[in-house]
Amino acid sequence: MKKSIILAVLVLLCAFAAFAEETATATVLQNEMNLWVEKSEGMMEWAKINLNAGETIDAYISGSDEKNNPVALTKRSSWKNAKEGQTLLFTKVRYNEQDYYAISNRIALGLKPAIVLENAATYTSKNFADIRKKGVPEGTVIAVDITDKTSGVYTLVKMAYYDEKAYVKREGYIMSSKISTTKDDISAYKLLKQAEKEPDEARKSAILNSITQLSISSKMNEMVKNQSEEAEKLKDLTPWGITDLPNQGLNYRFGIIDCKGKDRDHSPYDIDSLEYVNLRSLPGLDGEVICKLQLARGTLKKMTNETVTIDGVTEHWYYFDSGRIDEETGETEHGWVFGAYVREFYVDGDPW
Q1: What is the Cα–Cα distance from 281 to 233, expressed in whole angstroms?
Q2: pTM for this prediction
Q3: CB contact at 8 A, 176 and 155
């Protein structure tokens, strides 16, 4: 009889042990998320390991909820250097065959990595009427459950992401057309951002070329193509030499002035046209005209080091950004303008 009881207890203990070891995949939401180890009961210490948003780890589970979703194995604990009485909820995880803990709201259990390919609205439910004020910016790594979605032309899928500014995990729904769940798209976007910051043109080109070796979506391919075109434009700027202009502050901006109306006596004659001023894709009259403006306020962001003389007027070319969007084309009004058309004016007290 005793042997039977002991055997039954051992079977139960083995069953509990096996269940306790059960795990589910979780997606890391926070950039440079810390992993922790328990140094003593109720006290965590940083394990000197960081994971990037979009990586996946195994999280231990304690069971499942009424919808059969996994429930994480958690414990509330303080941590080294925390204020007295300060605690957080930690989830037990496994990484590189070792057990650690992660702060529970920095991971998404049972959801897969995805990346937001363009600024997107978020929703509190599967109803488009339940839109949140706060959206998710392009490039944010999120986690999604593509099985939890709406039907129809526009599909909402369940998602979670970590708000780096508010230090909270936000959950809800997002349009599936705004995201990509392919691993190569996530890698490609990170490389794309790296290319944008790379000052060396040869290295920038090499990074962009490396993306072509990945199997990326049509949306990501379009983004890479646009970046490659911008890189080619920068090569065309090399002969001019370009200087970034400092932030001009709030006291004044720069405006493009044509030769018409009250400003006729204050601006040079219009070389491009008597009706409008051309903004070009590149400095020089060979640059493609991408926008036509009259009397527009905005900011000068760049200037050519070299000057050029056009019809007797010697000036630099400036990169002008009006900060406005053309209602007809939907394009932002920005481009290169000959310095003869630019005049500094004050925001306050200027009747223009």
Answers
A1: 8
A2: 0.61
A3: yes
